[in-house]
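Lecture notes, part 5. Sequence design as translation. It can be helpful to think of inverse folding as translation between two languages: the language of shapes and the language of residues. The source text, in structure tokens, appears below.
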């Protein structure tokens, strides 16, 4: 277990390295860009702005999700609430094994 986990998922209690998930699709984004660049001259750059808008939308809406259960309920390991979660985990494990 050499990989350093940076977050803890509060949904499945896994120590995880979050995955980034953007809305929409990169294929669609590419298609929009192609169409926008091809038609930029005829639309006076409006299509270009639309494509740019879509890219920005995807960038802003990109969320970190748990790779195990795709939940968005992940918190940084060094945050106070994460420590509380870890303490809870430890406690429940001890209960389990005793
Ligand atoms: Zn999870």
């Amino acid at each position: 277990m050499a990989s350093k986990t940076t977050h803890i998922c509060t949904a499945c209690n896994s120590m995880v390295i979050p995955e980034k998930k953007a809305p929409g699709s990169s294929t669609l984004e590419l298609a929009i860009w192609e169409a926008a660049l091809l038609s930029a001259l005829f639309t006076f750059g409006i299509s270009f702005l639309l494509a740019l808008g879509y890219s920005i939308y995807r960038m802003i809406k990109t969320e970190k999700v748990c790779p195990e259960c795709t939940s968005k309920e992940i918190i940084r390991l060094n945050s106070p609430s994460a420590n509380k979660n870890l303490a809870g985990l430890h406690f429940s494990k001890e209960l389990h094994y005793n």
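The translated text above is only one of many valid answers, since several sequences can fold into similar shapes. The CA atoms of residues 64 and 77 lie 14 Å apart.
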